[in-house]
Amino acid sequence: MGSNMNSIRNGDAGARGAGQLVRHADFPSRHLAPRHVDVWCPPAASPDSAIRYPVIYMHDGQNLFDPAASFIGVDWGVIEAMSGLMAAGAHPGAIIVGIWNSPLRWREYMPRKPLLTPEAKELLADFSRQAGGEPLSDAYLRLITQELKPFIDERYPTLPDRLHTFVMGSSMGGLISLYALIEYPEILGGAACLSTHWPIGKEFVLNWFGNSLPAPGLHKLYFDYGTETLDHEYETYQIQMNHFISRAGYRPERDWQVRKFQGAEHSERAWRARVHLPLAFLLGIERV
After folding, report:
1. Domain boundaries, the chain
2. Which residues contact residue 73 at a Cβ distance below 8 angstroms, ignoring those fewer than 6 apart?
3. Which CATH number does the domain 4-283 belong to among 1.10.490.10, 3.40.109.10, 3.40.50.1820, 3.40.640.10?
4. What global pTM score does this model have?
5. Among 138, 167, 211, 246, whose Cα sits 20 to 30 Å from the Cα of 14?
6. Does the CA dihedral 270-255-286-58 come out positive or negative?
7. CA distance 237 to 142
8. CA distance 110 to 280
9. How many C-beta neighbours within 10 Å does residue 252 have?
10. What kind and span of H or E run contains 206?
11. What confidence tens digit (pLDDT) does each residue in 45-104 have?
């Protein structure tokens, strides 16, 4: 599979951290429209590198690395966060794959299977009317697992196994991250869901998730939420999700972690302030 590749920046040891950021412009797919994919590699990474790296696939890729492209002019600071973890924890780091969203973001990020259950019939109709069609999340996950991941594993020095492959996102990106782990537990070793937008799926999506979790011990789950703006609506849902996770046998602080951030809003600014925490949890870095 071909892809237009552009080097966005060869990092130095400056404020934004070291490493190389590369854009694969208009990454093609048989399932959905093309979109940019930005890939950040740690400084020591190269195609013939002896060191192999975990990979974290992140949604809303235009918000991760460049404030000029970000939704509110503030990016997640992922490079700075990963560079800081590498320095503080003596960790080689991870390859970060930022998948840009498309104009069909709602449909691509909304979990499809929970809305196909008989009890969610009205929710599916409401969602389809507001979003302009039914969820496309199954196609989006095929793009990631069947097209993008093989491409990344071929081009970059990755550790391609489940143990070292993760997914992360915020808001609707939190929903699709958990859905991805449930649908592809043999490919993904963990999901980080920041400010998960539970209300859009009401109890139907949450209950489906809770009853579909992969077996504990082989996967990691990270959740967090704030208390302001949209995040104000999330705590009740998250508490219910916590009960499902605990009942499934996940071990707190080992297999799963939930954090509440008092006063935090629903924005890239808030996620930038804490993105180092899910990165560290997924990668097993204890000193943060």
Report:
1. 4-283
2. 67
3. 3.40.50.1820
4. 0.94
5. 167
6. negative
7. 28
8. 26
9. 11
10. helix 202-210
11. 877 778 999 999 999 999 999 999 998 899 999 999 999 999 987 789 999 999 999 999
